[in-house]
Design goal:
- The chain has a six-stranded mixed β-sheet, sandwiched between helices. It has a four-stranded parallel β-sheet with strand order 7-6-5-8, sandwiched between helices.
- It has 15 helices and twelve strands.
- Helices cover 39% and strands 14% of the residues.
Length: 400
């Protein structure tokens, strides 16, 4: 592991989540030592572990997997035509086992926890992380503790954490408060932390980039658009593209574009100010609960990914997010939670701004399934019609 701030190195078997200088850690992979080729990969089943050579774990480690990854990459002609992009794809991460992209990280993170001898794993969460960690901890047969902002978690996600047997603790405060507490608990209680500050979790998430390249016939898109909450995913995906580029699998790299909601947009604000450090938002507010984070720990990695790739960061309103969610469902048949639709809402805005051209190849990453947040649908869409059981009544409402 290496610090992205001072370049200090740490053993891959050391349980540490930040450098002594305060910088974030990243797992270094020397792609020159990787001999796997395209034909080798093509003979393997799809999924995160298809790319095992790029995941530098102990080869004797027991892999904890629920067959995550190899999520669909849809050609989105209808919504592309509606918003003005000819070559649009949707990478639907809601098709993972627990319904979100977090499963990519948890298969690697929990596998690493076992190899380190950990008996308890934990996280703070806006919902998806807790659902995923609870499932993978159950598969591994170890204890799971999740800290959640009390009363602010979508019921679909909370139900998953409870169902899989996690110890669920509500915190009087937002996600950032919960994260600070679970980080302290990781030091006090020998709890292995699996928030995205853990660089091993991000190693799993980088495989999303590998799959995009693989599914596009070893071509990289012009731009990849990603919703940003705690900001680990955009940096992980960029890391994956860079490693595939260094390994000779692709000749070009995409622009990474990060999207945040108006009420929780510290990274976008820092990007537009041209600064390296964010100003945390004390009370982040957005209907997109999965990205309702005011002090994302991976902000430095996200800003680096955006700037290194020649990308950008943009903000969208809750209204734009909900409209994008509806468009994606009704034009493409892809149901996602509000935070996921931020990538589509962001693309619409970028087209209007002239920041994305009509003929560019674009991949929008959607991060979680619609059923993660069903109450949002009931609160913001038309309610079911109710009639007496007579054919005349049915004809009246159907207008056939």
């Amino acid at each position: 592991m290496r610090c992205i701030k001072c370049d200090e190195s740490y053993s891959k078997d050391e349980i540490i989540f930040k450098c002594d200088c305060g910088g974030l850690l990243e797992v270094y992979v020397d792609v020159r030592e990787i001999s796997v080729g395209k034909k080798d990969l093509a003979r393997r089943p799809g999924g995160v572990w298809r790319y095992k050579e790029f995941l530098p774990l102990d080869p004797r480690a027991r892999i904890v997997s629920l067959r995550e990854g190899w999520t669909p990459l849809y050609r989105a002609k209808s919504i592309g035509g509606e918003i003005g992009v000819k070559d649009l794809f949707i990478k639907n991460e809601g098709a993972n086992p627990t319904g979100s992209f977090k499963d990519r990280g948890m298969t690697v993170g929990v596998t690493k926890a076992l190899s380190l001898g950990s008996k308890v794993v934990g996280c703070a969460s806006t919902g998806n992380t807790s659902a995923s960690l609870a499932a993978y901890a159950a598969k591994a047969g170890i204890k799971c503790v999740v800290l959640l902002p009390s009363g602010k978690i979508a019921l679909g996600k909370l139900a998953q954490a409870i169902l899989h047997g996690a110890i669920v603790v509500g915190i009087k405060g937002n996600f950032d408060v919960a994260l600070a507490l679970v980080r302290k608990a990781s030091e006090e209680f020998n709890l292995y932390l699996l928030n995205s500050i853990n660089p091993w979790r991000l190693e799993g998430q980088k495989t999303g980039a590998f799959e995009i390249v693989d599914q596009l016939g070893y071509e990289a898109p012009s731009a990849v658009i990603v919703p940003m909450g705690n900001c680990g995913n955009i940096s992980a995906i960029w890391k994956g593209f860079k490693e595939f580029h260094e390994a000779g699998f692709i000749s070009e790299l995409p622009r990474m574009i990060g999207i945040q909601a108006e009420g929780a947009s510290p990274v976008v604000e820092a990007y537009k100010r041209g600064e390296e450090n964010i100003v945390p938002q004390g009370v982040p507010e957005t209907l997109a609960t999965a990205i309702r984070i005011g002090a994302p720990v991976n902000a430095p990695k996200a800003l680096r990914a955006i700037r290194e790739s020649g990308g950008r960061a943009e903000v969208v309103s809750d209204e734009e997010i909900m409209e994008a969610q509806k468009l994606l469902a009704r034009l493409e048949g892809i149901g996602v939670e509000p935070a996921s639709a931020a990538s589509i809402a962001g693309l619409r805005k970028l087209i209007d701004l002239g920041a994305v051209e009509e003929d560019e190849g674009v991949v929008c990453v959607t991060t979680g399934h619609a059923l993660k947040d069903p109450e949002m649908i009931f609160n913001h869409y038309d309610k079911p019609l109710e009639i007496d059981p007579r054919i005349e009544e049915l004809r009246r409402v159907l207008r056939l």
